[in-house]
Amino acid sequence: MTEPFQLRIVVRGYELDTQGHLNQAVYLQYFEHARWESLRAAGISQDRLIASGVGPAALENTMRFRHELRGGDEVDVTCAWVWGEGKTFRVEQEIRRADGVLACEISTVAGLMDLERRKLVPDPVERFAKLAEHPEIMGL
What we know:
By secondary structure, the protein is an alpha+beta fold. The protein has a single domain (5-132), classed as Hotdog Thioesterase (Thiol Ester Dehydrase, Chain A), CATH 3.10.129.10. It has three helices and six strands, in the order E-H-H-E-E-E-E-E-H. The chain has helices at 24-41, 46-51, 124-131; strands at 5-10, 54-65, 74-82, 88-97, 102-114, 119-120. Strands 1, 2, 3, 4, 5 and 6 form a six-stranded antiparallel sheet that branches. The longest helix is centred in the first third of the chain and has 18 residues, at 24-41.
């Protein structure tokens, strides 16, 4: 299996909740940002996806919070694409502090939606592979 894509983010003060922890919704934004950056690194921009008539659709997110994050913490957000057969695939991600402590993990079930028909495409692996300039980043 290919090493997961990784992105470094610094927790900003305005992202904190009243207890001084990273707000729970922001974890999801970090994960989403890393997924898009992974696609971009593979050569698939949002514009390229839209022009091809497809877009990713998250169907289910399961998050597990393991350790708090505070303002100024540097974190690494990973993104591993897990392919199977059929219309859906998984994206497994972690947020770890720079010292290696696991802060949060998420498992996402997703599909690739045909933007005109509003239905999932039957083979997202094939569509992503055709669009990617660097498919290895996505484990293709």
